[in-house]
Every structure is written in C-alpha cells, then in structure tokens.
Amino acid sequence: MSVNGVLVCGEITREGDIDSITLELLSIGRRLAESSGEKLIVALFGDGIGKAAEEVAYYGADMVYKVESPLLEGLNVDIWVEAVDGLYREIQPKILLMGQTATGMDIAPRLAFKLNTPLTTDCTDLNVDAEDGLLLRTKPVYGGNVSGVFKYQEEPQFVTVRTKAFEPVERGSAKCEIIPFNPDIDRSMIKVESIERVKEEVVELDKAEVIVAAGRGIEEPENLEKLQELLDLLKRYFDSGEIGCSRPLVDQGWLSSPHQVGLTGQKVAPQLYIAIGISGASQHVAGISGAKKVVAINKSSEAPIFKIADYGVVGEYEETLPAFKQKLEEIL
Amino acid sequence: MSELKIIVCIKKIPDPEAPPKAVSIDSEAKRVTFTGVAPMINPFDENALEAAIRLKEANGGYITVLSLGEKKSKQVLSKAFAVGIDKLILINDANLKDLDSYSRAYVLSKAIERIGKYDIIFTGRQAGDWDSGQTGLLLAEFLQIPSINLVRSVEVEDGELIVKKVKPDGYEVAKTKIPALITASNEIGELRYVSVKQLIEARKEPVDIWNDDDLGLDQQKLRRLGIVDLYKPEIEKECYFVEGESPQEKGENLAILLVEKDSVISA
User: Fold this and answer.
1) Is A207 helix (H, G, I), strand (E, B) or coil?
2) Is B20 on the interface with A (CB under 8 A)?
3) Predicted TM-score of the model (pTM)
4) Which of A150, A199, B25, B33 could form a disulfide with B170 if both were Cys (CB 3.0 to 4.6 A apart)?
C-alpha cells in the first residue's frame, strides 16, 4: 500500500552533511502537510548516507527514506531521475518538493516528463487551496517584476522551491522512523557520461554572514582588490564573508561564476550585504531578498538598487570606501 | 564527417531588465503588459546562438533557428541571420498561445520531426519571461535524445559531444552521443556584435511560417499556463540616504550608522 503524503527530496553536501535546502523544504513541507492532512516524508539519496539519514530524522518529518546505491555517488542525472521515479512509485506522494538547486534544476523537469505532471520551478511561496486541496504555486516571473500564482490538477503536485525562500526547520528531540529503499537502477540507464569534475573555486556565498558585492560600476577588474580589503576588515567582525558580484562581471570574466548573486546565481541571506557599483537589475536583486541589511553605494541616485537598500550612499565608491574602513577601525 | 546539422530554439521576450514602472498587470485577462519595453531575443537563447555559430565555424554546418511565437516576432528573430544562421522557421498559430513549458516543448518537437535529420539542438537554459527552465530538457524527452543542462562550452569529436557543464564550484566535463540537446548558460559567452546595417539586411531574409496544421499536433497535449493570479510584488524598502558634505564624510557616517545606530557590525 502506498503512503501518499508530502515528499521532500532532500540533498546532501559533498562532505556528507544535510544541505540547508533540505531543512528549508522540510519547513514548507510541514506547513503543507498540516494544511492538507498528509504525512511529511523526506528522502535522501546517495551512497553511504547513513549518518545524514539518522540526523535528518530529527527535523520534524514522519518518515525518512534512505535511498542508497553506489550508482548514486556523484550526480548522474539519468540515474537520479530513475531513482527518484522509483521512490515516487513506492510512496505515491500527493505533493513532491525539490530544491531549485543545481541538482533540482537538472532532475525536476525530466522527472516531471516521466510522471506526466506539470512542474512549477523556483517557487517562493506555496499554499494549499482550501476549496480543492490543490497547490497554489507562487513564483517570481518577468525578472521579478511580477509574481505569478499557478495551479494545476495533475498529481503529483510537483514544484521546486527557491533556496533561502523559507527559514530552515529547527532540530527537534523526537526521531522518526528510517526506511531503507533500494532503487532499481543500473549503468545501462546512463546516456550522458561524466568524464571529469573540476573544482575551480569554492565560494560559500549561501553561508556568508557578510558579502561585499561588485557591479559594473567598479569599472576596472583591478578595483576588486579594494573590495577584498574591505571584506578582509569586515571578516574580523563576522564569522564568514565572501565577494559577490552581478552577472556582467562573470560574463566579462572578472570573477568566476560561483561569485554570481542573482536569479541564475546564488541566493544569499547575509547579515550585511554591501553592493558597490551595482545598478540593481532585477536579475541581481532576485538573489538578495534574504539579506538582513543592504547597503548600496552608487554614483547615480536613480539606480534601482536604492529601492531595495536599507542604507544608500550616493557618490564615488573609491572615495567613500577608505573613509568607511578607517572609521570602522577607529570605532570598533 | 559530413557537416553538422544544428537547430537552435529561440524565443522573443520583453526585455527582462525592464524597470518595474514599465510593467503593469491586466488582472481580468491575467496578462502582463509592457509600456515602452523593447522586445528582444531571450538573452540565454542568444548565448545558445553564439555557441551554435562557433560550432559551425569550427566544424562547418547548417543552422536552422526555430521559434514559437507571434508573427511580429519576425523582426526581432531575424537578428539571427546577421550572425550567420541559414534558415529561420517561425511556428505561429492562434491556437498556440499561453502554452506551458511542456506543451511548448511538444510543439517544438513536432517541428523538429518535420525538419528531419539533426545532430545538435541548442536552447537557452531558461527564458526571461516565465523563468521556468524546462522547455529545453522537456524537448529532449519528447525527442528521446540525451540532454545536458547549463553548458558553458561545446566541442564535437568523432560523433560525440564533449561539453563543460556549469557546477556550483566549477564545472564537469561530460560527453554524450549525437544527436543530443544542450541548454546554454550565460558563461558560454555573449552573442557577437551586430551592426545596424547588418540588422537591416537580415530583415530582408525570408522566414518560413508553419502553423498548427503543418505539424499535425495532438490537441490533447496542449496544456495552458495555469495562471490563478498575477500581481506586482511590494519589494521596495525605505532607503536611508547617508548624508555628508563629501564622499569621505558619507563613508564615515555610514560606519557610524552601521556600528552605533544599527549594530549590524559589532566588535
């Protein structure tokens, strides 16, 4: 007999820990399970994931499915789609939640095709329609200028959720049941073969407490050094910090893509975000809605970035930054 | 190997960087309307076009561009001729409006079956209107060919595609047999520069128009966007502009604000 319920497809970091998106999905998943009177189930996929599965059992789900196979080591999309599909058939959930992450973006559309159900990607809010029990899926469209709410009849009700759109759920003291599941997968399913995985730069923007971000307004790539100096100073007062940027800087090769903040880059939620020479295109702004305080420094008072900033400085950043740094050192 | 047969799927959209004030909503018709916003080729589709042109330059080839949209898209789409494509097909039918990603992929797949033999299909990773990021991957499923998402470089070698795929901390080198589909990410590079003169010349090129009947579509497979509501989000904050006689003084005052008034930064 199938379990139904709300199924969260969780993710594990490369170090084997529970990824924050899993806890964010469990947070919205719990709300949906309660308003639809369903069970909340979380599944983790991989090889040797016992530790993560034990741990995730403390985060408010009714059941954990531990889907293990050596073939799930690394992320072969063809294999993963089959594994999630197999679990889907076992559980037959009414609602299926994944993260709008590198993994989710690859798997969800292909899985939706297999399950013959409409998928809504990158949702920032989800509610259950009290009248028909269907999912109301809110997502930003037209570069964030518009919010759309969508609804479809087909089951499973399938969505991906934007990272940092929901607060991660807190660890509880009760532990739920863990069920091992053997997916029916084999190497013959692989159509695209991975040859090599190259790590270029680890930029932990998603975990950073302070971010100094550069836009086209910094004018020369050499000026990134000035921002790095500011970041180095700020890192004395925050646990973690990174350099971020808007998309044009990546396109011009001034910074590598892991530094990009925005709709197609990282979504961030630092205590402090300092945007320097960033005009505030909607593509960029979509990534910083989780920031607690936004400071914008731009020479044009008309720059749209000021519309979402808490503090604004209109002026040349080259002259503002040294004074800002000096004063900080003086008073702290 | 004979020359590569490449198909690029592109879409006309309103400029995704349009200022909020240029965007309004007709809640009755559940439609977004734009004032004074230039239509353009979806930027990620331009990345896909650039990748296709580079492959053609390196290996020789024939590029067909395919688009599903309104008749007046023609002028915007014809820019593709200016960068060196060979053929442009526009699928246009009143019956094919407001389709969801699944159905758009279905219609494109039927058009591709009609085109016939192909080696590589390119799409952008997502389009700046609904930002769904599904059409390319779904198209590959309809055609039952392998697909690779979020690609930043492409090479063809002995009937195989070798790509670099964007990963959060770097990239993955992956390969697959052709025919295959690739979705282009912006890291692949911007579309080359086109002069106004080239643009005007490009508009004279013939565009093939195909409709619903030409494709023999199964009407059951046409799903509409399930829009319940559209609204403009309230994201604006009240920005406090830091005062000061000079940029230096503003910098100092900002430090005082963040430390003493707001305690965002503390020792």
Assistant:
1) helix
2) yes
3) 0.92
4) A199
